[in-house]
């Protein structure tokens, strides 16, 4: 029986050694490119930094990335690559393993639609879109934790451009304005928590221009021409 156990252990050891030899890690191909399974630790530690598979220098399948927390490696991101291009489906994770955000990346650039979540929650906090240059493009929404919209805005080449709105947690519109190439431009209306207009007028290059009307409890109290800084009317 002892001899039989020794024989089994010896055979298993040979099998594991052979398997490891057939699947070495951190190898290069004949052109000096990373190939096969790779894993790296943080400098002068035994704590893992990343692990994944290369195909002649190209990342493929799932890569796992870790951050150091209390001196220990904690999974912080998963990137799933394909063999066609450098685009990856990416998920960023908190130390609690809850998803922080998810979307696509091309290298270090965010592209396409990205979704961010409230802390330690599955509830969406932000939805935004990026162009191929990694700049905000199109609609962007921010949500309260109760699911209602806090902000809506439109971007072009990374700058606010078009209509923007802000809301209270109860869904009341607080501000409705417009941007052009990152600057306030055009009509803006501000509201109080009850939905009454508090002021309205126009902007040009983020400066108030022309006649602005100011209200209290929905009643017009003052008119100012901000181009000339002239008070047109004022009611006490």
UniProtKB/TrEMBL annotation:
Keyword annotations: Signal
Pfam families assigned to the protein according to its UniProt record, in alphabetical order: MORN_2
Signal sequence coordinates: 1-23
UniProt cross-references to InterPro entries, sorted A to Z: MORN_2
Top-level taxon in the UniProt lineage: Bacteria
Annotated protein name in UniProt: Toxin-antitoxin system YwqK family antitoxin
């Amino acid at each position: 029986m002892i001899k039989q156990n020794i024989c089994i252990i010896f055979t298993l050891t040979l099998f594991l050694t052979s398997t490891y030899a057939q699947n070495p890690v951190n190898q290069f191909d004949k052109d000096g490119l990373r190939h096969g399974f790779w894993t790296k630790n943080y400098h002068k530690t035994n704590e893992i930094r990343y692990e994944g598979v290369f195909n002649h220098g190209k990342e493929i399948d799932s890569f796992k990335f870790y951050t150091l927390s209390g001196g220990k490696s904690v999974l912080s991101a998963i990137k799933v690559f394909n063999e066609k291009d450098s685009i990856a489906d990416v998920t960023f994770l908190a130390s609690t393993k809850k998803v922080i955000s998810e979307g696509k990346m091309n290298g270090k650039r965010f592209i396409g639609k990205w979704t961010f979540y409230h802390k330690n929650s599955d509830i969406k906090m932000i939805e935004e879109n990026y162009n191929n240059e990694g700049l905000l493009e199109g609609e962007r929404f921010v949500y309260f934790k109760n699911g209602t919209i806090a902000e809506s805005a439109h971007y072009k080449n990374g700058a606010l451009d078009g209509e923007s709105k802000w809301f209270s947690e109860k869904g009341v519109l607080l501000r409705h304005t417009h941007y052009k190439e990152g600057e306030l431009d055009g009509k803006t209306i501000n509201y109080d928590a009850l939905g009454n207009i508090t002021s309205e007028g126009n902007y040009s290059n983020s400066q108030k221009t022309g006649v602005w009307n100011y209200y209290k409890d929905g009643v017009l109290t003052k008119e100012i021409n901000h181009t000339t800084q002239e008070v047109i009317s004022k009611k006490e």
